[in-house]
Amino acid sequence: MKKKILTATAAAIVCLACTHSGKISVLMRDGTAAGLSLPAENTAATYQSIQDVLSDTITIKSQVRKNGPILMSAIKDEDGEMVAHEEIKAAVVTARFRNVAERNGKVDIAFDVTIPGELTDTDWLVQFHPLLLINGDTLRMDDLQVTGAKYRKMQLRGYEKYNKFLASIISDSTKMIDRHQLEVFIQRNYKSLFGVTREEAVEHFTRDYIVRRNRRKIAMKDRMRDKYIKMPIVKEGLRLDTIVSEGSSDIVYRYVQTLDVSSKMKKVSVVLDGEVFQEDQLVYTTPQSRPLDFYISSLSTLVDDRAHFISSVIYRNAEANTACYIDFASGSSNIELDREENRREVSRIKKNLVGLLEDKDFLIDSIKITASCSPEGSFQTNKALAAARAESVKTHFNKYLTKAADSLDADRKGIKFITASVPEDWEMLDKIVRKDSLLAASEKEDYASLAGIDNPDKREAALSGRKYYMHLREKLYPRLRIVRFDFHLHRKGMIKDTVHTTLPDSVYDKGVMAIKDRDYNTAIKLLRPYHDYNTAVAYCAAGYNASAREILESLHKDDKVLYMLSLVYSRIGKKQEAIESYLEACRMNPSLVNRGNLDPEISSLVKEFNLQDKLFNII
Predict the structure, then answer these.
(1) For the whole model, what pTM was predicted?
(2) N or C end of the chain: which has fewer CB within 10 A?
(3) Which residues in 252-284 are b (16+ Cβ under 10 Å) and which e?
(4) Distances in Å between the alpha carbon of 592 and those of 225, 299, 562, 566?
(5) Residues facing 257 on adjacent strands
(6) Contact 76, 239 (CB under 8 A)
(7) φ, ψ dihedrals at 142, nearest 5°
(8) Residue 83, pLDDT above cutoff 60
(9) Which among 36-45, 68-77, 313-322, 369-378 has the top mean pLDDT?
């Protein structure tokens, strides 16, 4: 009897396999595939769909079904959770392209995926992969999956077997011990344990064969998972997971995807690939669908990209200056280049001179060198010393400038060196003392009280008796021993002292480029002060309709301004004003009739108020 049952079961399996083989052959012969199509446009809700996130939906185009083909249907909500769907009727149109509007850097594309009943079977898993084709790149969107009820049961049985295997792995090490023998041993020998530790006793009575078997099972976990779970149940990366109990019913799924739009994204295409699995075997690969094309329209194309200029005054003469900290020996005017600080400072000034000689716009008229000393020593001595140091620096750099001009083939003629000196720069010392963080407030007040002493030598003598004098002399005085360079320049070829001209406005140009790149927040930041048409375009593209309206209504009403006003009026519900503005814009510029088809705010007005005849007369 048992043999007869096994024979009957085997025969049923063979029959089932033959049935599916024949069905697969039909699919291959006919090239059966899921279809992509565009949903019918809802005129009244066209613009609303851009403002609000559209929802994916599913419906069944059922033929004769006794119990209905769906056991469970789930779609991913806005939080990423798979939830039960709400069925709707999906209208399908035959067009293969559609214009879609970008707003605030994003665009919604919607398409219907029609899964023929011939591709569904209770023993099959069918997966579909919607692909985006953008500027030569292929991006994979979330998959759609239709699972047969028997196939899902097979998957669940695999998980049950694997979980049973995992449960057989012993995680509690105490279960591997011969507890009875261990307890008897401890009771008999609890006082001394014959020198045997408790850990050694536990190890002795551990059942080695159980431990070895458990280790083998742990090592086999991955292999057993592959054995029992041949086709895992996928939960991530799915937009739809539907289980069918019977085939022969078409499933139509409304797929909605929001995309970030880059400046170069003009068109997006969608194609669909798919596979059919029976058990863990790939039995059929669907042909790739014909592409659906979505042409992206953007308000950025309405930008006025004419050059924007600003008035500017160019001056013939210019100045540049820098300070050089040269550490002279006490009472000396010689530049000691063996000191590292001096070499570094002199090298920096030489680089500045070379840079000015190489400048393409300016020539050097003169270089003024001013040397100053710190207050220690007599004023007369410091006066002579500062003058001598200025002359020493002049001589050094005059020689260098002559050599540099010759090597660079630069114009050295007419450059004058002028020297000046500040014997004791008390004004600078006063500023340094006020900002010094190491002097106490009382010390700063005491220092300030000595400022009334007009004679610099007497003032220095009074300071030398203060406790804080050593801080002044060691830390602050060196900062007064500087050489200042003032470079007097003039523009090459310029005779007049000033020239009034217009220059390209780089800030405005960056704002316009930000609109073209669909970076509207940056565009608003850059263009806000100009309060002009392009500022309004940036506001409108970013959804700031009140700000855009306020600017547009203040501008001269040309065709572009009127068209933008019609967009804004449509958004805020002023439909009559929107219609009047749009029609007047089209009279000024008939090409805007076709442009209106690209913007949902305008196209919805045309359809709602039957403006086609008026527009036809304009054309």
Answers:
(1) 0.56
(2) N
(3) bbbbbbebebeeebeebbbbbbbebbbeeeebb
(4) 63, 13, 11, 12
(5) 109
(6) yes
(7) -60, 140
(8) no
(9) 369-378
